[in-house]
Amino acid sequence: MKKTILVSVLLLALSVNVKAQLLQIGVKAGVNYANFSGSSVQTDAITSYQGGLVAEIKLLDKFAIQPELLYTTQGATYKTALGDFKNRLGYIAIPVLAKIYLGKSFSLEFGPQASFLLSEKNNFDVNDSNTFDFSVDAGLGLKVTKHIFIQGRYVLGLTEVSTNAQSKNSVLQLSAGIMF
């Protein structure tokens, strides 16, 4: 009876350890270099930020799925004859990325991202932004240690930012995070 209990406890401890290796949860934050692409009006990029929760679900030795829940600000500065007007859009973004490890700590990441508009701050009175943005993300990741990582990513918007313009989001992201 004692051997059965001991074996059961050992198997339970082993399964908990295996599950912990398959799922990691963490936080990340970083800087965005955002602009609008496809606009007929000249725009300049703005520097903004992003941050939130990240998870990694390890499916194979060299393959994982990385869902994230981020708050991200994007936008651009419009150049007109009347002056410069900054448009800053705040989104809740949900990227779901395929993560392919090219080595022990270096990874290639790509996948879709759905974003929902929460706020719009601008220097002129135009509130015609679409409330949904669909993008594709591609980038590289590096595990600095077992728990600390850095990422570089490009986010290419596929839907128009505004109902009155043909602009799409275009964002370069650099971030760092900690996995628990």
TrEMBL record:
Keywords: Signal. InterPro entries: Beta-barrel_OMP_2, OMP/PagP_B-barrel. It comes from Flavobacterium soyangense. Residues 20-161 form the Outer membrane protein beta-barrel domain. Residues 1-20 form the signal peptide. This is PorT family protein.
